[in-house]
Amino acid sequence: MSMKMASKKMMSAKMAMKKMSMKKMAMKKVSKVGRKHAVLKGNKEKTVGGLKKSDLKLNKQGKVVSKKRSDNAKKHFKNRIAPWANAFKAARKALGIKGFVPNGGKTKRGQELLAKTRSLYKKSK
Q1: Is 9 a domain residue?
Q2: What residues make up the domain containing 77?
Q3: Which of 110, 93, 92 lies closest to 101 in space, CA to CA?
Q4: How far apart are CA 31 and CA 44, in angstroms?
């Protein structure tokens, strides 16, 4: 009698397993978040950082970048970095420096270069 009961229990367990395996899996939700180039192309809605297509653009090298950050960097270069670079070039020319000289380093030549660059930078402002 116990053998019959054991086989019945096993059969019911197998049937339960079969029913479970037949259950359909739920559909997975397709992500709206993607990489910058996918957002710019229109395949995804926004980036991980929350940027939309309207917030992105291609730079000179063809890389997808944030419009806001790119415009800020251009402005920063134009107002801060370019004048210093021009003053540095002019100072090297005025002092007749060719080759590598660290700007402001421990050497006398480097200190002269720094002083000249600073004076030209202040005049350009």
Answers
A1: no
A2: 67-125
A3: 110
A4: 8
